Amino acid sequence: MRDLAARLRRLPPSLGPVRLIGVDGHAGSGKSTFAGHLADALGGAPVLHLDDIASHERLFEWTDRLMAQVIHPLAHGGSAAYTPYDWRERRFGAARPLPAAPVVLVEGVGAGRRALRPHLALLLWMELPREESWNRGRLRDGAEQREFWEGWVRAEQAHFVRDPSRPHADLLVLQSPKGYEVLPGPGSISGPDQSVTQSDGSSALW
Question: Which of 8, 45, 78, 121 has its CA 20 to 30 A from that of 35?
Fold first, then answer.
């Protein structure tokens, strides 16, 4: 993870002074956990969870909120502030600051959407099949969220048909027993079939 963090720090800024890193994938694929580990390796980098930007009424139609509250302020070199959504209370809360740190992570389904990609320094995709991801998500959320998941799956499928992220991913992240394996993605220059290697020639694991 330290090696990946060092690579991200070396990227040129993509949004004002910020290197904005997208972590996308199907719901339940492990995006939040991976982003948390990566943020720690980056010395406590801020993480924006897109679950805080979305809402019941706008599962995927939240681009305007993201642009107004986060992207535009960071692009102008200032700190951002967003109003996180409470999924149980069904309302937005008090503003939460998001500083213009050297690296900022944005994780969630749709982090690699068309409108956001021009502002990303790098896009990572959690490489887990959608059915397996969704099953993990259902088990995590329990029976009380069964009805929500039925609607979510339909909405996610429709979103990725209209605006797929994986074809544009620079890196694919696979969870392994040893941690995470990071491979070139479809959007990388090196191509999807070549492994990322370390200086000793071994496959890079983070």
Answer: 78
